[in-house]
# Entry
Amino acid sequence: MKNVLLIIILFAIPCLAFSQQKATKPATAPVPKLTVRWGNRTSGDLTAAQVQQLVDSPLVAVDEKGIRYTVNGFRINYSFKGSYKDEETGQTKQVKDFRAYDFDKTDRLTDPWKESIRDNARKDDEIIFNKILVGLKNGKFVFAPDLKFTVR
# Structure
């Protein structure tokens, strides 16, 4: 009888200990709240002259403590007014045009994009940076908030 009681106790102790353990998730660092700037500017209105100065600037991502993170890519959406000559009427007509491009492994525009924006920035143009990919200190990547600029 003592042997049976001893076996039950020895078997019950590990079972009780296992049932008392709670499932825990591995600790993960919280994702920082990021702010993105184009040069020194956040979203808003810009003059054509300000846009022309900013085209050489990188996208910069910082958290609420001012810690800087690497921007690893982004998409630019550039909408602008264009014009064309209607062949039937001979009149020049205005249209809203749009260009977009994905930049990988960089935090800034390429030279052709810089030149195009510098030469063509006009009132009511819109420049949106989205899908801004930011590398965190732990090696993971997150998308940062979009930037939207309107030329005034």
